Amino acid sequence: SQITTLINHKDKPKRSDKTLQAIQRVGQAVNLAVGRFVTVGEAIANENHELKEEMSVACIEARRAGETIAQLTDVASLDHPESDSHITIFTDKTGVVKAARLLLSSVTKVLVLADRIVIKQIITSRNKVLATMEQLEKVSSFQEFVQIFSQFGNEMVEFAHLTGDRQNDLKDEKKKARMAASRAVLEKCTMMLLTASKTCLRHPDCESARINKNGVFHRMRLALEQVIEIVTDSRPNGENEMAPISIYSGIKEFKNKVEGLRENLYFLSKENLSTMLEVILEHTEDFTDSAYTSHEHREHILELSKQAKMELEQLVSVWMQAQNQKTKDLMEDLEVAILKTCQCMNELKREVHSAATSLAADLLKYHTDHMVLKALKITGVEGNLEAVAEYTCKLSEQKEQLVEMCRLLRHVSGTEPLEITCIHAEDTFQVTGPQIISAAETLALHPSSKIAKENLEVFCEAWESQLSDMSMLLREINDVFEGRRGEKRVYLSLPRPGKHNANLKALKPVKLDTEEQAKIAKLGLELHLLTSDVDSETEKWEDQENEIVQHGQGMSSMAYSMYLFTRGEGLLKTTQDLFHQAEIFATEGTKLASALHAFSDQVHDDDKPLLLLEAEKLISMCKQLQVTAKAPVQGKSPTFTKVDACILKTRNVMTLLCQLLPLCCKLLRKNKAGNGCLKPAPLWREERIRTGTNAHASERRAETFGIKTLENHVTNMTFLESK
Predict the structure, then answer these.
(1) Which of 196, 359, 462, 474 is most buried, by CB atoms within 10 Å?
(2) In this structure, are residues 561 and 593 in contact, taking their beta carbons and an 8 Å threshold?
(3) Are residues 526 and 661 in the same domain?
(4) Dmax over Cα atoms in the chain, in whole Å?
């Protein structure tokens, strides 16, 4: 950003002292920033001897280029007549361009080398986890298992930290969602591996227990492999990733091509357009062939598919005529044909969305009581093999319904991250269903076994958790379709303190009862309205990559999750989840305040004192929220009071955010209009750099991805020995 400012300055023969000083400040800021950057690079080089030489050379080049830029923008080094108030700048602009190129190339090299080191660390960590998993598979004594599992837990925590930081750094939302899905699998499977292995050790001759354990190990290995694929951007055997095309994305691309005919009649062939429609209509067969699609929806989809073919035929006919003869009447006919084709596709999209979401709503409502799981637990404890067999058949039917639901929802999810969430959910049901069945069979064969009962509980809990997540996913899909939320970040691996604890009886997470939900409903509704206001304000910004906007969107998304908690919905299941989310929300608010301070350094406007005052207010409010969220409480009434206080303080922060966003947006627009409310060039964000090097920053980020849960597995291993 700074270098672009230097290179793009207007080449006027004369400049004022004020402008010249501003450019000098930019040159100095570049040099200071390069110095800080290179210091980190040199520290990395000293810790990694295999890349030390390459990294050191790149750092020296970067430092030299930064110093050159500082010298070339130094006012004292410029020769100009003292009597002339307007001075000539950059007697050697080519020198600045040359130094800038060298700087960008050396900085890029440092980043690439550092990235290679990070990737190597993740691969090494994965290899350690795999090696320990192999040992766990082969153990035959309980004492040996406890010892190795403790080591495995520590290695998983390290892997979770490394991959959590990597996920945070990924720019590609699709990769980020895939990484989150893989890490969620690893987090949940860690507890499954514990109970499945214990069951196998207790009942070594039981075939169903062995199948159950093998399934967990296999799924963990696949998840570990996918993480490495994402990190290294590669596929096994050089295969290219072929992502299945959804109906939504197909329709979107098709409409873009059709509407492109207004600008250019020759940029694609009619065969190309016909093929695109054929692919879309082939995908609609997933709906029309499904046993779970209603007769009414099936008829409407078939009717609209037929109409789409007719509209395309008419469009192609007019289009071919217009290519030969561009008359006014023909162009008007083409416009009508384009509009009718697009309208038909919109109706088809609406129909498949209705079919998928109504099916999902019905299924989730029908299975909300978990009757089949309850029956499996009861009949398993009774040792009733015949009844267990009957209910496993029912669970298999339920699994097929839910898998089909996920496949149809994927077609209408609307965004790539939500598509990946649907695929992840489908895989989870596919795998967890048979695992519940094998766990139930083991319990039926050993009805007095406490560990077999605990194992079945863990797998049933995973199933219930995924069903609950599907309700949230369905709400997100509907929000995207109706344009309410846009492309929201999907948090697949939210921490659930106590949810997967090795000592299941040691900690009972608290949920709000109906009366408490009613008390807090008004506050929750206010929070919901504020998230809508913040979303509305962020949408007004032209630069959606702006740091202030991104922090605001992140805070809005978290506040929305907290609102859903007040309704007993969403991914935050317990009060502990809410308190943890409040901590992360406060941390994000503090980061926003840092960004606001950096922004205020650029402001030359009467509103600057107000901006600084509001930023300080934000820091104070976030600190108060963190103190409240971390305060220990015991008992039902104090816990509810703490919940109420967290929601109230979050609401206050969101209210302040609603005032801050339009103020910052106004200042940016003033600058673009040429009112000069900003300095000629922004200073490097020192506060952000200090935050980035804070030793606790990675720990705070990691906590948002369920690492505390893994640490609980390790900490509570002592309970295994007492069992």
Answers:
(1) 196
(2) no
(3) yes
(4) 104
- What pLDDT, in 10s, does the model give residues 266-287? 878 888 889 999 999 999 999 9
Specify the number of domains making up the chain: 4
pLDDT value at residue 70: 83
Q: Are 321 and 175 members of one domain? A: no
Q: Which of 254, 320, 312 is nearest to 283 (CA)?
A: 254
- In the structure encoding, which two tokens stand for residue 59, read together? 């750092």
Could you tell me if residue 472 is inside a domain? no
Query: What is the full DSSP assignment across 532-545?
Result: HHHHHHHHT-S-TT
Please indicate, yes or no, if residue 644 is contained in any of the structural domains.
yes
DSSP string spanning 236-288? GGGPPP-PPPPHHHHHHHHHHHHHHTTT-SSSS-HHHHHHHHHHHHHHHHHHH
In a domain, 28, yes or no: yes
**Cα 441 to Cα 437: distance, rounded to the nearest angstrom:** 6
CA-to-CA dists, residue 538 to 483, 501, 591, 629, angstroms = 14, 39, 17, 27
Q: What confidence score (pLDDT) does residue 522 get?
A: 77
Same domain, 178 and 60: no
**22 shares its domain with 159:** no
For residue 75, how many other CB atoms are within 10 A of its CB?
A: 14
State the SS3 of 15-61: ECHHHHHHHHHHHHHHHHHHHHHHHHHHHHHHHCHHHHHHHHHHHHH
Instruction: List CB contacts of 201: < 8 A, sequence separation 6 or more.
Output: 139, 140, 141, 142, 145
**Range of the structural domain that residue 198 is part of:** 137-232
pLDDT 10s digits, 4-56: 766 666 555 566 677 777 777 888 888 888 998 888 888 888 888 888 899 99
Let me know whether 66 and 174 are in one domain: no
- The burial of 296, by beta-carbon neighbours within 10 Å (0-12 exposed, 13-18 middle, 19 or more buried), is given as exposed
Q: Please compute the mean of the pLDDT values over residues 184-200 and round it to a whole number.
A: 93
pTM (two decimals): 0.64
Domain annotation covers residue 373:
no
Task: Tell me if 219 sits within 8 A of 181, measured CB to CB.
Answer: no
512 by DSSP, 3-state: which?
coil
End of a domain among 671, 694, 713? 671
